[in-house]
Specification:
The protein is mainly α. The chain has 21 helices and two strands. The protein has three domains: 123 residues; 108 residues; 132 residues. It is flat, with a radius of gyration of 26 Å.
Length: 382
């Protein structure tokens, strides 16, 4: 498309294709990409090419946006993101809120790119990674060194990549190199950056790599016990995923981390997020949670809420599982808690008075009864 947008516009104009959502996205994308690539090429290519391309695509983008109103198009997040880019390109940022309102009314979720565009109102970072720009040799260098297990050399290449661009698309490779070279201070710095602001490039690959690494279990040398590699770093990565607007589709590996740290809010958030993901993804997708895994996670989250005496949250989880999403739950989930109330009611407390013990047990019993009512009286098939 780069350098030849007019051929694409001419082809579409002379064709008999209807303006459906996919065609709308493609044609508008051609206009936006070529205008933005033109700006980027200024620093790299021939002036004559720039003079020929300047201004044409902006007019096409404006015309395409206008024509959208003539058709009843059903758009998804990628199409709306292209519209946001076009509005920035045309210096019509005051219209961006209207697009967000339209997305909300249509039930179309904004993603990290949508939020970045609205927040910064700039395309600079988006097109820093354009496939039309010269590719850095460093990207292939780091992968080659990783494949050869040259960890220190790979980490040095990672340093060079970050020096060129602090939010590279190859961040997963950079993180892999730093972990392999045991340069965890650099990993911490990257995670902190992800906790501070949304990145303009996908971060899921890097975040999932870190979660798998820090959440895995290893045998401790002094006593032979299996322990989580690094609970604090794993939780820091989870917090970064929240800022990046990511959903952890299979959060099972994180539950031991948040339970060990007593982070009940994170446990509830992860579980409810997995329920939402299951409800919105088609049945054939592999990312859907199995019944066994979902039930195990449910048991874990209910127990951590009970131990932290967060009974409202516990009821919320049961309500979501049974009532909101219609998943089957058996009363046996509360059996271990019912027959060991002291372990759950007084967890982490010292010097509890008799009066406090009585009050805590009353609250615990009331919460259990409330949850059992959801389980007993709601029929998922009704």
């Amino acid at each position: 498309m780069a350098g030849l947008p007019q051929l694409a516009f001419k082809f579409y104009g002379e064709s008999t294709m209807d303006l459906v959502a996919a065609t709308f996205k493609t044609v508008l994308e051609i206009a936006v990409r070529n205008e933005c690539v033109t700006c980027c090429i200024r620093s790299y290519l021939i002036k004559e090419l720039i003079d020929e391309m300047d201004g044409r695509c902006k007019k096409e983008a404006a015309d395409i946006l206008h024509n959208r109103k003539l058709f009843d198009l059903t758009l998804d997040t990628p199409e709306y993101n292209i519209i946001l880019e076009a509005l920035i390109l045309l210096d019509r940022c005051d219209e961006m809120q209207g697009i967000l309102d339209e997305m909300a009314a249509a039930g179309v979720p904004a993603n990290a790119k949508s939020n970045y565009l609205v927040k910064t109102k700039t395309l600079d970072r988006i097109y820093l990674h354009s496939k039309h720009l010269p590719k850095s040799k460093l990207n292939s260098d780091i992968r080659r060194n990783l494949d050869k297990k040259l960890w220190v050399k790979a980490a040095r290449v990672g340093d060079a990549i970050l020096a060129e661009n602090p939010t590279p698309q190859t961040i997963a490779h950079v993180l892999e190199a730093y972990v392999a070279a045991n340069q965890l201070d650099k990993v911490d710095a990257i995670v902190k950056s992800m906790q501070t602001a949304q990145w303009p490039v996908p971060t899921l690959g890097g975040i999932m790599f870190l979660l798998k690494h820090f959440c895995r279990r290893e045998v401790r040398a002094d006593d032979g016990k299996q322990v989580i590699v690094d609970v604090d770093r794993a939780f820091a990565v989870y917090k970064a995923s929240k800022v990046q607007g990511l959903t952890i589709f299979h959060p099972k590996m994180l539950y031991p981390v948040v339970m060990q740290l007593g982070e009940w809010e994170a446990a509830v958030d992860l579980f409810l997020g997995s329920l939402r993901a299951d409800a919105t993804n088609p049945p054939h997708l592999a990312m859907r949670t199995t019944k066994v895994v979902r039930t195990e996670a449910f048991h874990d989250v209910v127990r951590v809420c009970a131990k932290m005496r967060q009974y409202d949250a516990m009821s919320q989880v049961v309500h979501a599982m049974v009532v909101a999403y219609g998943h089957e739950v058996y009363p046996t989930v509360f059996k271990s808690m019912w027959f060991d109330p002291v372990r759950y009611s007084f967890h982490g407390l010292n010097g509890v008075t008799d009066k406090n013990r009585s009050d805590l047990l009353d609250s615990f019993a009331a919460a259990i009864v409330s949850c059992l009512q959801y389980v007993e009286y709601f029929d998922p098939l009704s």
